[in-house]
Structures are given as C-alpha cells and as structure tokens.
C-alpha cells in the first residue's frame, strides 16, 4: 500500500502590514491602482503658443511706447552750433552723446525687468514659448522705442535746423543711438529676471512617489 498524498499547505495570506506584500492593483473592488499613466502637466502647447503671442505683442507695443517716451524725456540734449557754413558740437568735451546711449540702456534694463515681473505674476509657470516671447517682444519693443524716441526728438535734418535758428545760435541735435548693442539690454534683462523668479518662486515638479516616514517610495521600511 502507498501512503496517502499530503495535501499542499494553504496559501499564506498576506497581511496588510507586511512590508514585502506586493502593491495593490486595480480591480473590481474599487481599489486604487498602485500607479497610473501620468497626466500631461501644463496648459498645453496650443495655449502656451497663444499666450506667447499675446506677450510678444503687448510687450512690443506698450513697453516700446513707454521706453521711447521715457528716453525722449530723460535723455540729455546734445548742443550744436552753426557758423553759417558748418555745424559743430558746442561743447567738444561734453559727454551728452554718451549719456544718450547710457540713458537708453538703463531704461531698457528697467523696462525689461518690469516686464518679466509682470509676466511672471500673471503666469507663474515657465516654458520655452514664454521665454522666446520675452526675448522677441523685448527686442521688438526696444527697436520701436528707439525709432519713437528719434521721431519725438528734434528733427533729423541738422542743416535745415541750423539754417532755421541762424548763425551762432545753440540748438539740440537729434536723438541718436550710437551703440546699437543697447537694443539687447531689454530682452536679456527680461530673460534673466524671469528665469530667476521662476527658479525661486515657480512651481516645483511633484515627486514620483510619496513615501511615509521611515519608508522608501515603495513602502518598504528603511533600515
């Protein structure tokens, strides 16, 4: 006779507190899955492109108009004088011409920082389209401000102006931006300020797994 076969041991029930228990899976009992597909973060590419276009246009028009008026108002005047046959600088050792470029650069830095702050307060999330909009809008605004300041300032026809005022009479030279590199002050200032604000106060990416104290991201006790 052969001995009866021994029945297999019953399956070991996993305790809910067992650290080595497998993670729960989704099922028909309504339990939440251990993990699921990640949802795309952010408003979406189409929305970001629309916001970037709006930022570019608003910065170029409003910011450029503000910078142009301030430059025309605050830039020093370069005095000229005519002897009847030619036009000369009245003060040959003056630094008014350098001050014109310096005034534009400082104002552009301030407007760029202000525009970056406003954009960050309105939309705290960064993104490549928004950064490109800050650069392009700042450059277009700087060009618009330069041309607007020249248009608001004294006439560009120096010979006609000298003939109009007469010989020996001092008059102001037209606004002129000799250092064209000053046009880059606004976009670079806006870019740096916005990146700094985003790094300091922008939203943080969520952790892939939230862990309890004393356990790692998978719920295993940390020794």
TrEMBL record:
Q: Where is the composition biased (Pro residues)?
A: 1-25
What is the protein's name according to its record? DUF2567 domain-containing protein
The species this protein belongs to is Streptomyces gottesmaniae
Q: Where is this region: Disordered?
A: 1-38
Membrane-spanning ranges? 49-74, 104-122, 129-148, 183-202
UniProt keyword list: Membrane, Transmembrane, Transmembrane helix
